[in-house]
Amino acid sequence: MTGMDENPLDLLPEVLLGASAVLGLLLGAWLPRHRQWIVPALAAVACTAGIVAAAVAATDGPMTAFDGAFAIDPVTSTVRIVVLAGTLVVLALGFVPFRGHARESEFHVLVPLASLGALMLAGSQDLLLLAAAYLLASVPAYALAGFRKDGPGTEAALKFYIVGALLGVVLLTGITLLYAAGRATAYPALTEALPAAPEPLVAVGVVGVLAGLLFKAGGVPGHFWVPDAVQGTSPPVAALLTTIPKIAALAALYRLVAEPLADTGVPVPELVAVLAAASMTLGNLAAFFQSDVRRLLAYSTISQVGYLLMPVAAAQDSDLAREALLYYLAAYAVTNLGAFAVVCALQELRTVDAYRGLLRRRPALVFSLVVCLLGLVGTPPTAVFLGKVEVFTAAADAGLGWLTVTAAVNTVASLFYYLRWIRPAASPTGAPEHLHTQPLAEVVAYGTAAASVVLGIAGGLVLASV
User: Phi/psi at 182 (nearest 5 deg)?
Assistant: First the structure.
């Protein structure tokens, strides 16, 4: 990598998000209630400009910013585009539900701040920046989880915060131990120092850092908050919590495993592989008999972390791991957001049985739901299908054949609970009466379902660019 001077323009997508949040907070304090829509519009413009800036920066090749603390490479560039696009979707999903809300502008400020923390987390190449980014990604998310200030939302936020605070302390402890072992916090310095450090000290530090990042990803052992938080909060916030932080945490995990922990002697790939198997298996088993659609999707996201951890486990031994992870992150993001867009469009329908007969009333919406749910299984030609092929190949290439078999079995098993939702929705009888939908969320559902298919068909072109 080439060194760079401390130029804020190197972090232009991040600067745009931060500036839109600060300006949005000021505007929200002064604008009348009927003009609060300017704040989400500002955030949407910042996200769009950030995508353009990220795409331009991606053509310049790998670089580092701010004395090497932040990496601008294919991992960062891909995460920037995916996170910013996902943020646009969340802003659209939240526009109507929070329109006219007393704290409308606050919602559209907290969303960019949470995404800003995610971007910083993905590009962190220094343990101190990693800790700061973890907090920036977490605190706005806590506030969003309890944004409605009702009973379920408050409970969701409290559980989310308690688990986050606990594992945040564990993360900081792990960072401290790695600093004690390597006498540095920058990844390049740790790469040189950790192989000669005491293995027990490095091992405990690694476990602490992994636990904190897996909390953000929603994987075992930091998964306890996911079902309650997703069920208790509003659907747009649930869409954010199960997508944006997950993408950033997995990118940060990949960077950590592939670089400073590569030659330490600690069996990090094996540990990550075990956590991957545990996440996909626990998520699937818990989802089997869920009747609440939000809890079903929550456990689905836990299982998806397992598949996403496969290329992280293969990072040290396979050249296919990076492109597999980045493609799957994009595929998962668009497909998961599509499923939540359907939930947002039909907020009155909370259970699987409540969707019975929906095909007669909203055939296009049911079709979008089917595409997204079967996409999460990994059905061709959706993007997740190609993503799973890539991560399975990377894991097998790294000698993790047992993990590939475990993932294949879990993929087949996951079809059961997705079909439990699809079957009543496609039933010809029992159409819901007085069905109210949210038109903007419907449009988002159609768009994300189509994007999942297009991304799968054009997967070859996308993989060639990452």
Answer: -105, -5
Per-residue tokens: 271:
């540990």
- 3-state helix/strand/coil string of 270-329: HHHHHHHHHHHHHHHHHHCCCCEHHHHHHHHHHHHHHHHHHHHHCCCCCCCHHHHHHHHH
Q: What integer pLDDT is reported at residue 117 of this predicted model?
A: 97
- Give residue for tokens 């920036």: 136
- Structure tokens, 165: 């605070």
List helix spans (H) across 314-400: 321-345, 358-361, 363-377, 383-397
φ and ψ at 292, to 5 degrees? -80, 125
pTM for this prediction? 0.95
C-alpha dihedral, 283 to 284 to 290 to 295, nearest 10° = 30
> Which structure tokens are listed for 49?
């400009």
* CA distance readout (Å), 84 to 7, 50, 101, 329, 331: 21, 7, 24, 13, 14
DSSP 263: T
- The Cα–Cα gap between 412 and 457 comes to 22
CB atoms within 10 A of CB 60: 11
CA 136 to chain centre: 15
Could you tell me which of 446, 293, 451 has the C-alpha nearest to residue 365? Answer: 446
Looking at residue 431, what is its pLDDT?
67
pLDDT at 3 (0 to 100): 47
Rounded Cα distance, 256 and 127, in Å: 9
Beta bridge partners, 63, equal 2, 72
* CB atoms near residue 66 (< 10 Å): 16
E strand or H helix that includes residue 64 = strand 63-65
Low-confidence ranges of the chain (pLDDT < 50): 1-4
H or E element that contains 8: none
Q: By the 8 A CB rule, do 376 and 342 touch?
A: no
CA-based Rg of the chain, rounded to a whole angstrom?
Answer: 21
What is the predicted pLDDT for the residue at 432? 66
The strand pairing partners of 108, in sequence order, are none
Q: How many CB atoms lie within 10 A of CB 165?
A: 13
The answer to whether the beta carbons of residues 193 and 199 sit under 8 Å apart is: no
- Return the amino acid letter for 304: Q
Q: By the 8 A CB rule, do 201 and 194 touch?
A: no
Dist. CA 340–CA 165, nearest whole Å: 27
Distance CA 80, CA 288 (A): 34
Q: Which amino acid is at 308?
A: L
Judged by phi (left if over 0) then psi (alpha if -120 to 50, else beta), residue 158 lies in alpha
Q: Per-residue pLDDT tens for 41-62?
A: 999 999 999 999 999 998 887 8
